[in-house]
């Protein structure tokens, strides 16, 4: 069993980067950012390609992570989508959250090892989901990246207040700010609940599993406690490490929120 770490609200944290950059071999800071696994044109059963950095979506996420590592919060905030910036209110609020680990899974900033990036495209969505995972596969975060003109932006809205994020029931990672163990019960479906007192009306809910080249849409149902709940069949998860991201639309302005959890099936 592996303790999980999750991010909600950005990806919910989803990041936004407006850059027209290309990662090149002459840029040491970027060539060390790791393997890119691009599944843009592969079938569901195909193996993802191993490639050098070059996908605009993964470049945007890699650059965003590097900015946060360097503490350049002003530039990072400027690279969010305009709607995402609106949810934060101002740059100072974003910067304060960034210093407390509320913008990204801190493990991605703390590791000295390379990160791997999985890119999932879907004709049904207007974004590319980019997932960054640590070398061990036990820590991850994910961001919908949206193209506007020639630039790419991460949608990273302000996360919910403490205790008001979605709650992972299985694996039992709890809310983003809780100390859940992340233990997975293979006899039960994956389950995540929306807050009981939330006025949110989540729409277009989808989930992404590992490096599968597909987005799966799912409906939320009302559970016995009156809370909206999303369940995912447990047969989607074989023995081993897994990364699961839930994505949904919410709020005014409407923005994409995500919650990502890494867990192990024994």
Describe this structure in words.
- The protein has 266 residues and is α+β, with helices and mostly antiparallel strands.
- It has one domain (6-265).
- It has helices at residues 28-31, 56-70, 73-78, 82-88, 91-99, 106-110; strands at 6-8, 36-38, 49-51, 116-121, 128-133, 140-148, 151-154, 167-170, 190-193, 203-209, 216-217, 221-222, 228-232, 240-250, 255-265.
- The protein has a 6-stranded mixed β-sheet, covered by helices on one side.
- It is globular.
- The model is unreliable at 1-52 (pLDDT under 50).
Gist of the model:
This protein has 266 residues and is α+β, with helices and mostly antiparallel strands. It is built from 6 helices and 15 strands. A hairpin with a 6-residue loop joins strand 10 and strand 11.
Topology diagram in text:
Blueprint: E1 6-8, H1 28-31, E2 36-38, E3 49-51, H2 56-70, H3 73-78, H4 82-88, H5 91-99, H6 106-110, E4 116-121, E5 128-133, E6 140-148, E7 151-154, E8 167-170, E9 190-193, E10 203-209, E11 216-217, E12 221-222, E13 228-232, E14 240-250, E15 255-265
End-to-end distance:
7 Å
Radius of gyration: 17 Å
Q: Uncertain segments of ≥5 residues (pLDDT<50)?
A: 1-52
Number of helices: 6
Question: What would the average pLDDT be, to the nearest integer?
Answer: 77
Order of helices and strands: EHEEHHHHHEEEEEEEEEEEE
Fraction of helical residues: 10-25%
User: Which structural class matches the secondary elements?
Assistant: alpha+beta
Q: Give a count of the beta strands, DSSP E runs of length 2 or more.
A: 15
Largest sheet: 6 strands, mixed
Strand fraction equals 25-35%
- The domain count comes to 1
The general outline is: globular
Strand order of the largest sheet: 3-2-4-5-6-7
């Amino acid at each position: 069993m592996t303790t999980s770490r999750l991010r909600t609200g950005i990806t919910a944290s989803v990041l936004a980067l407006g850059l027209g950059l290309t990662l090149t071999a002459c840029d040491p800071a970027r060539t060390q950012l790791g393997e890119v696994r691009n599944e843009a044109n592969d079938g569901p059963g195909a193996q993802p390609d191993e490639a050098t950095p070059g996908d605009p979506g993964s470049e945007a996420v890699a650059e965003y992570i590097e900015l946060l590592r360097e503490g350049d919060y002003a530039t990072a905030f400027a690279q969010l989508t305009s709607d995402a910036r609106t949810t934060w209110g101002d740059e100072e609020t974003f910067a304060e959250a960034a210093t407390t680990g509320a913008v990204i899974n801190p493990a991605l900033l703390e590791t000295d090892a390379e990160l791997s990036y999985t890119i999932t495209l879907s004709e049904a969505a207007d974004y590319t989901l980019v997932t960054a995972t640590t070398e061990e596969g036990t820590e991850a975060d994910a961001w919908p990246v949206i193209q506007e003109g020639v630039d790419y932006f991460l949608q990273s809205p302000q996360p919910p207040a403490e205790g008001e994020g979605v709650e992972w029931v299985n694996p039992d990672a709890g809310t983003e700010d809780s100390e859940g163990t992340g233990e997975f019960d293979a006899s039960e479906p994956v389950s995540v609940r929306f807050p009981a007192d939330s006025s949110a009306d989540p729409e277009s809910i989808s989930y992404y599993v590992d490096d599968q080249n597909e987005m799966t849409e799912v409906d939320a149902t009302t559970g016995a406690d009156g809370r909206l709940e999303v369940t995912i069949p447990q047969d989607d998860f074989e023995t081993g490490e897994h990364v699961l991201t839930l994505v949904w639309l919410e709020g005014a302005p409407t923005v994409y929120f995500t919650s990502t959890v890494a867990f192990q099936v024994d």
